[in-house]
Amino acid sequence: MLIHNAAIFDITQKDISYTSEGIEAVWATNHLGPALLTNLLLDAIKSSTQGRIITIASKGLKAKPFLKIDLADPEFRKKKFSVADAYYQSKRAQVMYTYWLTERLKDTNITANCIQVPAVRVDISKYSNLPSIMRFLYSLKSKFALEPEEMAETYAYLATSAEVRSVSGKCFDEKRRPVKSNKYTCQSENIDKVMNLTMSYLKIEE
């Protein structure tokens, strides 16, 4: 099983940052990284009895119904950088990557599914430069947020449960319920465009 949980979303970040390869860090870490790692590990996953690949999106995407992947400028080189916009763009791309991966793995023993994670309680003390008003707002938000252990139960369920052994190409919420993603993410033409862009970064020919 492969769970793509690593991501960048530093709420205090104001300026754009780049990886050592010169790629905007949020796009590289949250979307390109999972696609590259999956490709590198695919043969090993196929050799298992039943492989599972789980990508992680955000329930916050519901608040951005018109957000699309900026195919011409996914790295914010020509427009003002926003860490929130960069994050949600990368998470929308991960939903589309899940559907693309499902189609390519349909004749294998591997499933691919996505989790739309809601607010999960985080340690605000690690953001030492967070303005007091933001600290206050996050303290209010944390009262309604899930404990990490609660969210982890859904991760474990999708990774190990026999109930979803043959389920693929679905998005699940924190209560393990299948949910529909944005219409834009489900259209094959849009998926192909996003994945052609993705593969051009990774230099992988389809």
Topology at a glance:
Elements: E1 2-4, H1 25-46, E2 51-58, H2 83-104, E3 110-117, H3 132-142, H4 148-160, E4 171-172, E5 178-179, H5 183-186, H6 188-202
Parallel strand pairs: 1-2, 2-3, 3-4
Antiparallel strand pairs: 4-5
Helix pairs in contact: 1-2, 2-6
Characterization of this structure:
This protein has 206 residues and is of the alpha/beta class. The chain has one domain (2-118, 148-202): NAD(P)-binding Rossmann-like Domain (Rossmann fold). Helix content is 42%, strand content 11%. The protein has six helices and five strands, in the order βαβαβααββαα. The protein has helices at residues 25-46, 83-104, 132-142, 148-160, 183-186, 188-202; strands spanning 2-4, 51-58, 110-117, 171-172, 178-179. Strands 1-2-3-4-5 form a five-stranded mixed β-sheet, sandwiched between helices. β4 (171-172) and β5 (178-179) form a beta hairpin. α1 (25-46) packs parallel to α2 (83-104) and α2 (83-104) crosses α6. The chain is globular. The relative contact order is 0.18.
Low-confidence stretches: none
Query: What Rg, in angstroms, do the CA atoms define?
Result: 17 Å
Distance between the termini: 23 Å
CATH third-level topology: Rossmann fold
Q: Count of helical segments? A: 6
What would the average pLDDT be, to the nearest integer?
91
The major pleated sheet works out as: 5 strands, mixed
What is the element string, with H for helices and E for strands? EHEHEHHEEHH
Strand line-up across the major sheet: 1-2-3-4-5
Q: How much of the residues is beta strand, in percent?
A: 5-15%
Query: How many structural units, i.e. domains?
Result: 1
* Structural class computed from helices and strand pairing: alpha/beta
